[in-house]
Design goal:
Largest sheet: 6 strands, antiparallel, barrel
Oligomer: single chain
CATH superfamily of the largest domain: FAD/NAD(P)-binding domain
Structural class: alpha+beta
Number of strands: 19
CATH class of the largest domain: Alpha Beta
Strand order of the largest sheet: 12-15-14-13-16-17
Helix content: 25-40%
Number of domains: 3
Strand content: 15-25%
Amino acid sequence: MKGFDSISASVTPTVVVVGGGASGLVAAGMAARRGLRVIVLERNRRMARKLLITGKGRCNITNNCDVSDFIANVPQNGRFLYSSLGAFNPQDMMQILTEQGLELKTERGNRVFPKSDKARDVVDALVGFARNAGSKFLTGRATNLLLDNGYCSGVQTETGEKIMSDAVVVCTGGLSYPLTGSTGDGYALAKQAGHTVIPPRPSLVPLESSDKWCADVQGLSLRNCAIKVIDIKNKKIIFEDFGEMLFTHFGVSGPMVLSASAHMRQMQPNRYQLLIDLKPALSAEKLDARLIRDLVENKNREFANSLGALLPHSLCPVVVSLSGIAPDTRCHSITKEQRRQLGKILKALPVNISGFRPIEEAIITSGGVKVSEINAKTMQSKLVKGLYFAGEVLDVDAYTGGFNLQIAFSTGAAAGNNVG
């Protein structure tokens, strides 16, 4: 990937794009393709640093689905995206990346990845798109908007330098992963322009638990389990999934847990409970038959030492404790009712959720610039002319599966295609 350009900020661009991430690079490329003079102002030495850590370094680029299915996966202000997704959908983004020489593949759940499984290749393709279209890159951090009589005419950097322009597109991301540059700069710029900023909160984030046994099994990964999330207050199942999860010193994490967190919109201590099916391939009846067989084979052993063939070693004491069966009970003495209670624990191991991990650990920030103050078709501010917002800085977020990056791409494209 080429570095930043040797270009003086005194050169007056038509557009300044603040932030060289997913939305900023697409906005810049789209605007430059229209013949506009575009400068991307990025505070980091590398573009799109956050993309490098998405999808475990593979980068789940988008989701190869239609607009209606896409909107169904956006719990926060999904309707706001109809115009931008209609004008620039996942297939459009895939085509742009393919034109940059990036080979793609579609996996389970319509999730799109680079064929190389390297997020770096996605970053290179995005930077190439913006650069090949004619965008220029400057290193610097915008700390103020230049506002005059309801119009935005540029930005001021933290060094005091003013970059004048006809329009500004703010693509600074949210608050998640601050080491990548997402430190909330865009919220301050939005407030300066008079915009309402919905308080940021974590989304797609690990979960803390008040159950001390989670720390006892920290590091344990369950690969083929199923989970349900119960809203205890409303007595409803709000999420179900099958896949992988991880126990940690604070609670639980892993792909399924991150997805589940996005459904916990009213987080309060012990409002939600996670139920883990440790044996999803077995019905309750088949599991009971398996337990009968195992207990017979271990009839003279203590119960605490009889579950090794059924469960990971570190999880055995937890299940023994939750079952209510005394650890020193001989297997041949376990009653039918005790066995059925054990089966219930194996099919619905409870984890009480006490809260989210800090927002710095979230993949996505929920909250941001209030979308009712933004033109959904163009991404231009309704309060200040010449000012646009795109990407995670907006109060729009989705579930896992490539949807959040596509939101960045589609809103960035809307800004780039309409700015100026």
